[in-house]
Amino acid sequence: MISERVTGGRVIRTALPAEAEIIADLHFRARSTYYPDGVPQDDFDWAEAWRGSIERPDGHVLCVVEQGRIVGIASFRTPEDASTETVKLFQFHVDPDRWRSGLGTALHTACVEEWRADGKRTAVLDVHVDNTRAQAFYARQGWVPDPENPPVEGDHHLDLRFSVPGE
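RE: above sequence
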């Protein structure tokens, strides 16, 4: 697990439970950009959900810190219904004020390095169909539509797959 990685003046490190509220706020602001009718579950306790993700013994939450402020987050773990060589990226958000600054690419690189170190060969995620910006980002990083989970009529998410490069 990454304890701390410095890249381009940014620190990428494991998130702390005490940061759950800050992470939940960033998560909400990022998600608000691609839900045209407002974020679903806007009354949900996201801070508590993030605290749970951070404290999960089988999960990882990385954060990007610039000038003492969390500006990017990624949450992943091996899903219960997958092989041990697969990791699922559950959440990946960059502060909307920092889009197109290289933060997402740096965070994605840190995730891939950790997945490789953990022996993962494949990563999967689902992305909201209206989030074309994120879809383009993932495509640039090498994610492709998951052939094992093609789009289903009426579903609001697309399943993507990433082959974790070997050493």
